[in-house]
Task: inverse folding
């Protein structure tokens, strides 16, 4: 049985009531019958994105975001758009080059709408605080017809070189977040390089995590990103003040422009805690250990 907060948040969204704050909620279209069905039961017989958007509507959003134009510039003027939205916990948008196979995948975006509660108290928020968030579960931007250049080797998790269209995808996601009247977007980056790419518009909810991330980015900015990210993944990052390994700890990055989340990320308390964490941390990569781990893997 959904708790009272979950029901309240869902009803607030479905009926488009404004939040009880001085900031008005963005104007959005009324919920459709299929959207209400998706929200309340998870059923989605028409395979609509969040029970709301069909392929034509998603393609139009992608066009306005510049994603279609970017794909055309790269030699893919008429990509196949496929929606896979039967599972409410994983709504999938895919663009393919010519045929709908993993080998011809250009773009894959996996999303989830959920009520997010911080795992512990952060700033003014407690474990009881609830935010309606658009969660970015997975993102692939892949050029299946290119090889990795010598000066830009494969990043951890990559199968093909990227497309250089991350800003266009962010525009698409922000459009969805605004239309869906959520409190913000959220992701949990598995790798350092993912957090670095997403930091164009995302910030770690925990200001200490944001400061530590900025310190790592600052101290390792002169090294190749692929090597840095792989070394961090393999446990080769070292805290200079202690000489101990500093493991990568995935945590929530958020993007929002309104409401309590936006105010907190812009607040002096957030900035002070972030700056303190950044200035107090110095890191290096133990390259000798990294070489040992690479050699052991190749045996």
Result:
């Amino acid at each position: 049985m959904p708790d009272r907060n979950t029901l309240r948040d869902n009803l607030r969204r479905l009926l488009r009531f404004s939040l009880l704050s001085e900031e008005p909620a963005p104007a959005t279209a009324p919920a459709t019958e299929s959207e209400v069905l998706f929200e309340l039961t998870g059923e989605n017989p028409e395979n609509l994105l969040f029970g709301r958007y069909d392929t034509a509507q998603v393609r139009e959003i992608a066009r306005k975001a510049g994603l279609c134009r970017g794909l055309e510039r790269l030699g893919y003027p008429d990509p196949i758009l496929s929606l896979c939205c039967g599972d409410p916990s994983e709504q999938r948008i895919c663009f393919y080059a010519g045929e709908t196979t993993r080998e011809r995948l250009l773009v894959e975006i996996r999303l989830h709408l959920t009520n997010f509660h911080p795992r512990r108290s952060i700033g003014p928020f407690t474990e009881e605080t609830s935010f309606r968030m658009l969660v970015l579960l997975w993102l692939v931007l892949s050029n299946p017809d290119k090889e990795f250049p010598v000066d830009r080797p494969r990043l951890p998790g990559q199968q093909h070189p990227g497309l250089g269209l991350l800003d266009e995808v962010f525009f698409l996601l922000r459009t969805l977040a605004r239309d869906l009247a959520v409190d913000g977007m959220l992701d949990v980056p598995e790798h350092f390089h993912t957090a670095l790419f997403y930091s164009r518009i995302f910030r770690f909810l925990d200001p200490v995590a944001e400061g530590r991330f900025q310190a790592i980015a600052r101290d390792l900015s002169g090294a190749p990103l692929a090597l840095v990210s792989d070394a961090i993944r393999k446990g080769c990052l070292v805290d200079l003040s202690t000489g101990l390994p500093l493991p990568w700890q995935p945590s929530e990055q958020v993007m929002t422009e309104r409401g309590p989340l936006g105010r907190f990320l812009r607040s002096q308390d957030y900035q002070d805690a972030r700056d303190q964490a950044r200035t107090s941390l110095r890191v290096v990569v133990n390259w000798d250990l990294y070489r040992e781990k690479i050699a052991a893997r190749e045996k």
Remarks:
- Residues 1-187 form one domain.
- The CA atoms of residues 129 and 290 lie 41 Å apart.
- The first strand starts at residue 80 and ends at 84.
- The chain has two domains: 1-187, 190-299.
